[in-house]
Every structure is written in C-alpha cells, then in structure tokens.
Amino acid sequence: MGKRILRAVAALAAGAMMLAGSGCASLNGNGSNGTNGTPQNSDKVQTFTPSGGKASATLNIASGSENREVAAAVQKAADESGVAVTLNYMGSLDIMAALENGGTSGGTTYDAVWPASSMWISMGDTKHLVKDAASTSTTPIVFGIEKPKAVELGWADASGKTKPVATTDIIDAVTSGKLKFSMTSATQSNSGASAYLAFATALTGKNEPLSADDLNNADLQSKVAALLKGVDRSSGSSDWLKDMVVANPDRFDAMVNYESLVIQANKQLTQAGHDPLLAVYPADGIAVSDSPLGYVDRGQNLKDAFSKFQQALQSKDSKLEFERAGRRTGLGGTLTYASDAQVQQSFKADWGINTDASALKTIALPAANVIDQALSVYQTALRKPSYTIWVVDYSGSMKGEGKQGVVDGLNAALNPEQAKASRIEPSGKDVNILIPFASKADEPVTANGSDTASLLSAAANRDPRGGTNIYDGLSKAIAQLPSNVSDYTTAIVLMTDGMSETGDRSKFQSDYAAKGQGLPIFSIMFGDADPTQLDEIASLSNAKVFDGRSGDLAAVFRQVKGYN
Amino acid sequence: MKITKSKIIGLLALLVVVGVLAGAAVWQQSKPKPAAPVEATKVTGYLGGEKIGLFDDPQFAQLAAAQGLDVDYRKAGSLAMMDADRTGMDYLFPSSRAAVEYGKAKGVNAAKQDIVFNSPIVLYTHKAVVDGLVSGGLVSKDGETYHMDMAKAVDAMKNNKSWADVGYQAGYGQFRIDSTDPVQSNSGNEYAALVATVLNGGQPATVDSVNRDAATIKAIFAKSGWMETSSEDSFNQFLTLGVGSKPMMVGYESQILDLAVNQPSAFQQIKDDVVIVYPTPTVWSTHTLMALDDNGAKLLDVLKSPDVQKLAWERHGFRAANFAGTDSISRFGVPSAADQLTAVSELPNNDAMQAIIAALS
C-alpha cells in the first residue's frame, strides 16, 4: 500500500513539472504549439484534438473520404465534446467490409463508422455491432457540368440556373458523344455506386427498382456498358475526383459527385478564374448521401465518448460549419442556416444549386442482394476496361522486404482470387503490363484479361539489383500505351523505394508531352523514395502519390487499383 | 547549469505542491471506505431498434439499476435475432408474437416470456402526399386522423398504379409503401401479413391463401427494392431524406411519439409535414420479452413494473399490454395520433407467417 502511494506521488510530481513546463512555454509567447486544436494531416488519416486541452478519450473512426471537406465541423465538435477523433479515410465499400470483419481492417480497429450512406452500414453490419447510427448531414449526388457545356446542352440558362433533367436525357447526351464525365469506381465509392445503379435503373425504362433479371439481360448490359464508355476518368475517392477536375478544368466536361463537392470545386475554380460547374439534378433522382455516424460496439467502452462527440456534431457551431462546407443539416434535406452569409456563399443559385428540398430525390434503390450482384457485374463486365502499366522498382535496395511487399501488392491487385475480396478483380478485357526497372527498364510483360499468372510469376522471379532510374521505366511505359486510349481507363502506376538518377528525366518529360495524352501516373512511395520527384510526376500528369512507407504495402496497391 | 533565485523559488513551490498532494493521498487512504456498492448484474440481449430510445433513456437505466440491473443491448431485427448467435445473451426482445413463434420453430427456448408493450403498425407520410391520397380516395380524413383503406391500396399496387394515378401528382414512379425487410424485421413482416390478409378478402391469411397470392405479395414488395433491416433506421431515413426519397413508409406508432418527447427541436421541424396514417385494418405489434436465463427474467420483471410501463408510454409512446397508454395520446402533441383503434386484424397463424417469409425469401 505504501509503495502505491509513493508511486502516485511521483506521478503527481511529474505531472506538476509538466504543467510548470507548459506554463513557461506560454509565458515565452508560444501559447499555441500547433498540435492542439489543429488537425494533423496525412494522406489517409486525420486527427482532431480538442483545442481546450487534453482529450477525455480518442475515437478511431472509419470515414468516407468526402468528410475531409467538413474538417471544420469535426474540429468544432472535438472542441466542444473534449473528445479527440481520428478519421481514417476510405471508400464506403471498405467501411462495409470492415464491419463485416467485426469492425477492423488491416490491423486497425474502429470505434465508429461514418460512411456516405446508411446503405453500407445496413449491408455490412451482419454482426450487429453498430449502435446509435444517425445522419450528420445530407447531400444529393448530382451532375456537376461545366457551365458552357450545360448551356450548350440546353440544361441551363446564362444566369446559371439549371432545370431538372431526366436521367435518360443525360444518358442520351453521353452515348451520342456530346458529354463526357468522370465518376468514381462503383465498387470503391458510394457516389460511383449510386450513379451506376441509377443509370442501370433508368435504362430498364420500367420505373421500378432494378432486379436480378434486369442485370442478366444482355440488352441492358450492353446499354450500361455503352454509357460507361463515356466515363473519361475514374477514381477510388469522391474527394480526389473533385481535386482532379479542379486541377485540370479544361480537360473535364463534367463529374458525378456530391452537391457539397461541386460547391467545393466551384469555390476553387472560380477563384482561379475558371467557369464553375453547374449542379444538374436528375429529375428522377440518383441518391442522397445521409452520412450516418454510428458507434461500433466491440466491448471497448467508449460509447459515452461517442455520444458526446455525436451530440457535439449536432450543435449549432458544428452544423453551421457543415452547411458552410456545402452539406445540408435540416430534416427532409433543408438548410438550417440559410440566412448565414457564408452558407449563402456555398449554396449559390448561379452555380445551379437548388436549396429547395424537392431537389433531393432518389431512385428506388435495388434490394441488397441485387446491389451485390450489380457491383460484381460492374467490376467483371460492364465498366470500361482498364489498361494499367505497372512500373516497378527492382533496384538493389528492394532486396528482401521491399520486393516481398511489391509481389504481395501486385497479387492483392491482380490475382483474381485475392482481388475479388476488394472488388478490384480484373475483367476479361483488362490489360496489365509489368515493367520492372533498375538502372534501366526491362522488357514489358503483358497480361491480357484475368489470366495474370505469368505476369505475377515474372514479378516474383525478377531479382533486385542495380540503381534506380524511374524515368527510363516511365518512358518505356509511355511507349506501351494503347493506340486508342478512350477504349480504356488507362493509368501508369510507378512504385519506387529510392531517389532516381535524373539523366533520363528530360527524355521522359518530352515523351510524356508528345505521347502521354494527359494520362495519370500514380506513384507508390516506399522506403527512401524522393517525394519531390514523385510529386513532380503527379502534378505533371494530374495524378497522385500514395504513401506506402508506413503500414501495409499490399493495401496501398489495392487502393491504387481502385483508381482505375 | 546556473541556479537562479527564481528557479529555487519554483522548485520550492513545486515541493510544497508535492507535499500537499502526498498528504492528501495519505489522508484519502486513511478515510474509512464507503459501503461497497452492490455490483450491478449485467444483462444483455438482442433488441428491436424501435425500443432503443427506451433502453438508452437514463431514467430507464435508473429504474433498472434500482433492481440491481445494468442493461445493455445489441440491435437486431425481430426475425434476424432468432437466427443470430445467442452466446452470452440473456434476452431477446422482438416486436411481435409472430417473431416469437418463428423463434420457437427455430429452436429458441425462452425460460420465461411475456407481452410487455403493444404498438400499432402505422404508415408515415408527408402532408403533400396524404392530401393527394385523400383526393384520390385511398385515404379518408376524420378530424385530424387519417385512415388508409388497405384493400384499395393493395389493389392499386397490384395494378401497378403510379403516384399520380392515386392522387399524388408530384410523385415519381409507382405507388408504393416502403417497409423494412419482411424477412428480417418485424414491421416489414407484419406489413406483409397485412397485405396477405387483405389479399385473402380480409380474413387472416392461411398457408393456402399465401401460396395462392405469393406472386402478388412478392411483386408488391419488389416495388420497394432496397429495404432497411431496422425500423429505427428506416424512420430516421424517412425524416432525414424527405419526401423525394421515401414518400410513405411502414413503422410503429411509438416512433413519432418518442421523437416528439425526446427530440423536440427535430419534431418542430417536421410536425407540420409528417403525419400518421392508420391502415384500416391495422395489426398490433406485440413487443414480447423472451428471457433466455434468470437475468433476462429479472429484466422482464423490471419492464413489467408500473414505473417502467408509465415511462415507456409517457416518454416513448409504447402502449401497455392492454392496448392503451396510461393517459390520452393527446399528451404528445401529435395531431394525427388516435387513442382508439377500431379496425384491427388478427395476425395469420404461425404456419401462414412462415409461408409468407418463405415466399419473400
């Protein structure tokens, strides 16, 4: 007993010293130290700590990527509740898979889930773990169409006001070549899944929810495939799709995305002097994201902390931030703070935004088993085939763990059995090409369709040795691009663990300018890779860098595959 | 390191603080311990979502704690819970006699069971929709309460009438009433029983009648496509997404009464728009607690106590086993709520219910 008291006193003394220490710091004028009250960013994880001081608890939340845009509301709720939260950004389908897996994925356990739609909780919560799921805000999925294009199609007037357009009319514009659009992958992201299901439903022409028989109908399949040919770029994340369109507005006519992300895009586009995207609401509806936050009860006793945080998200301060970011918080799809000046700056009529609740419509979604079937058919047959060139580092430093990570990663993305679990399995029309490189690039190994075995064994058998020349690898990849890129969703994926020699850099740049056609070069950064070199390539090709330095490299490969 | 005067003062101050704290710690240790609180018995089980408001109510937790219980739950549909893993579970609390029978047929053995609450199955819709349906003749208005003629409604669905055909001009697509998944959740299941009964000319459906009408029943449910597995989620979506997403849904009368009491600001937003429509006939949801062990039986006693029965009515809108609340329904300030239900149908027997589930599986 005496010992315990002494230990307690020692701990108190240490605490007192720490208090004294921080007190000194603030006397020196360093009151805000940057870690409290400011979100800490990384590619996939963002932590919010209460600005008031120490958090009473921390919640680990599996969250849709679109919630990156409501960081201000999350911060306000963390401040008010005294609860810290870590948002792990992932696609809605990954959240569903994590629930099916008991609230964990890739070794991370979650205290709560926050997908874009309740549908993914209902389908994923087969173990009855989710409690108190409640909507945080709503936003409809809309078409954001570049203003001149929307006017040309007769869907908007010069003021920016749009009229509701039937989904079949949008489909006609796409299939006749008048409109191209980008959307997220239906098997990775809620906005893409919702749009795909809406298109298929509209194409049946029956005014009824899609059925299993419809999906087996060859005529419907060919119509959906024809429509998806109009998708000029895909993505695994709604938020990144928005970033991509903003980064290269001249290239993209339109995107299917959340109204809130069309608003965010327009703030950035108009500031840069570009035309805004006009929100076009399909007359028959696509879907509405209801963004539910629910507790995952794994017996971890954080429900009180969860309730505090959930309540704080419903506070006026937090709701205002949701609406300023373009989400609606009133019941029935209305705005709660329509008179707030900053809310008005988001919901602008001259961007086609219609704040009337009647704009929120959803098609009758199919039954759960039909959704499951529809997603499989999308991945294996109806989506635009993908053409992926994997440019992989086999320099000496890749020996051992590095190479094993790459081989595991390629298997996770391309081995049909493994890839199926993440719904990224290759279809019969996909093309995958492996280009190993070290000081120079090897000859390409091509796999057509779903038979990827020889490519995967080539990847496993190549020994790592020599230097790092990513530019020669990329030049070789550009030479492998298909003659008609619009037949495919095409991407180059570069994986490297070191700083590259730069002798071939300018050759690569001129090759890309001449023959790259603006196609994305995604990079996976590993080991001692040089972020500057990779960022340069990403910005050249309007793509992004995935960080594989910490954690599971195979998971990163899977994620990259979800982008095309 | 140079020791300044201020640092010495700081160190002395710190030592004083530590000394005081140490003294306090010793003093704490020397105090007599308070009487050890009785360790509450943990009780957990599967609960239909519409009763979560009651189980999360701090007043309910207090009443249970007074009887030595610490009550927890897992949310599950009334039928789904009969198939779920019951390891470590003390109770099942489905929402109907049909679910209880279904469980028995699946080998669920309740040590003790009793009816705890009753709640009628109702329809929820929006003012614009109900006005349209009144003009179209499916719904009749009596004072502030609305009644849906289920024979006419089922006929309209059977004949693929559109919303416009039945009087709601702004509606898109076919007239439909959304429910939860009838194979997993009770409100959808009882709605299916109601449809089957209406198709049997108003007589409780039988195995023969269900077999005869199976295709029609399936077609009526196919109109909804996606179905939630919990009445709670379904009602939340109805409120959140608005008329364009879910024009009309099947739920429990208690759901809007609970909202009116516990979320007054949310209720303010919707009270002029959302209305209850009582189906004619309707069916009663008989919320029955199945105790799987002694702890579950203790929970049953707590639930049946007058204090909990009063709380369940006044704050959550559950009627007692005798079909009435402890006072008038007008206390909730929901104009379309009615005290008396005259046209109530018997549920089909268990064999017929099984046939309905089989037809819709």
Would you write up a description of this structure?
- The complex is a heterodimer of chains A (564) and B (361).
- Chain A has 564 residues and is of the alpha/beta class.
- Chain A is 41% helix and 18% strand.
- In chain A, a hairpin with a 2-residue loop joins strand 5 (104-105) and strand 6.
- Chain B has one domain (41-360): 3-Layer(aba) Sandwich (D-Maltodextrin-Binding Protein, domain 2).
- Chain B is an alpha/beta fold and 361 residues long.
- Chain B is globular and about 65 Å long.
- The interface between A and B is large, with 51 and 46 residues.
Percent strand of chain A: 15-25%
CATH superfamily of the largest domain in chain A: Periplasmic binding protein-like II
Approximate helicity band of chain A: 40-55%
Morphology call of chain A: globular
Instruction: List the quaternary state of the chains.
Output: heterodimer
Q: Treating each run of at least 4 consecutive H or I residues as one helix, how many helices of chain B?
A: 15
The name of the CATH architecture of the largest domain in chain A is: 3-Layer(aba) Sandwich
Number of helices of chain A: 22
Taking the sheet with the most strands of chain A, its summary is: 7 strands, mixed
